[in-house]
Specification:
Length: about 110
């Protein structure tokens, strides 16, 4: 399962135009901010505060996409869309669990790039 969440920094490298110091800085910002946002996400999920969950998912979109893991980007969008349409089901909740687990594994992998 861990291999499924291996970070691919290709997009981020293109954005920073291969500037290694800027790349390192971007990784550090992601590692600093994303865990905080994921903590807020978990709290809002526990409260079933779907409007706030949707806001956090929207806020973390760039960082999620920068990780270069298609499943995480697609899951984030799918969860966001289901919440936006008012269709929060058991399958949505399972997808949220898979997403948060995957994000934790991806962040662990991202730490190896610092």
């Amino acid at each position: 399962m861990k291999n499924k969440f291996k970070v691919d920094l290709s997009m981020l490298k293109r954005i920073v135009q291969e500037d290694q110091s800027f790349l390192k800085e971007m990784i550090e910002v992601i590692l600093l901010n994303l865990p905080l946002e994921l903590k807020i996400l978990s709290e809002k999920i526990a409260e079933s505060n779907w409007a706030e969950v949707r806001k956090v998912l929207h806020k973390i979109r760039p960082s999620t996409d920068y990780l270069g893991i298609p499943f995480l980007s697609e899951a984030r969008k799918e969860i966001h869309d289901q919440i936006e349409s008012g269709n929060v089901s058991e399958s949505t909740k399972q997808l949220i669990q898979d997403f948060t687990t995957g994000m934790a594994l991806a962040l662990d992998d991202l730490k190896t790039y610092t």
